[in-house]
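Researcher: Structure for this, please.
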Amino acid sequence: MTDITLYGSSLSLYTGRARSYLIKAGLAHHETTPTTRHYRDEVVPKAGGRQGIPTLEMPDGQIIRDGAAIIDHFEALSGNTFSPTTPKQRILSRLFDVIGAEGLLRPAMHYRWNFPEQNLEFLKFHFASMMPPGPNRAEKAEAAANRMRSACQGFGAVPDTFELVESLYHELLDKLNTHFAEQPYLLGGRPSIGDFGMIAPLYGHLGRDPAPLALMQARAIRLFRWVERMNRQDLDVGEFDVQDGAYLPDDEIPDTLIDLLKQIAIDFVPETRAAAACINDWLANQTDLTPGAEVSRGVGMGTFEVRGVTINALAQPYRFYLLKRVQDEFASLDAPIKKAVKDLLGACNMSAVLDITINREIGRQDNLEVWL
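Model: Predicted structure, token format:
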């Protein structure tokens, strides 16, 4: 093996985040599905025993599981190539990473699973491709697909919320399209950590499954161009006047980005509050949660209201593992800069993200997220 192996799938939301980073960083790699004996016998034990994707295998046999950890690894080696150095841009880059990985799961799941006429055959093919060859492959694929279809409801995409989910997503498409008409990436002429977070749902589900892909291409062509751009090694900015491959100067945050974050805040902030309350209640009742215990995907349901509609959604501790990076970044700033950043977040209706916390920290050990 002479290059990096990325175990993932074109269908996978989180694989899209790692894949895009590897492409933009110019890192030689090949991608394969996690269906081989080698993956099962050699990779999974080093990945904490979890068969999750994306998982990366380095030429020397090192294994890195999880998209955030994969990007962290290479950012540390490269001197943070895709991390802005100015405070406002750096904070927003981290915030968009949380939004992409956690905040857009409801529309991503809704547009995948609740449009069977457009999506069903597409999904059947791809779920089968992720099953190891052998007898009952189709049945195993169908069972896996049914588990994910049921999980869709856990993210709050149920018939009573369909109209709200779709109206919020249509508004989001318009805001994203307006921004990418002005800038090739979130923060100017170069992708950031936030772009890699956002490409996860906007490619893996929303920019590839037939139903949402048609919607994006019809309603938000500039956004679709960004999705294409994020999967190409060069900057791919030919339609823009500025092609310097740099972040916006002087820590500039364009008005289009503020408008975009205000739109996202409509459900992201109340959902984050509800998830924190749910997780903290759960933590208060854990008497034997020792340091190093693996963090589960979800620990209950958070309930919140958006535009008069009640949503129940899985409370996921991982959201707060990522959100703490935003909060730690903010805590490291000098007082005058903190005020400027807080004013910016206030203008975006996102001030609350600095204060919403869970009562126990999360770290990583042996390729797993664990309670500290």
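Researcher: Any notable elements?
Model: The two ends are 36 Å apart (CA to CA). The mean pLDDT is 96.
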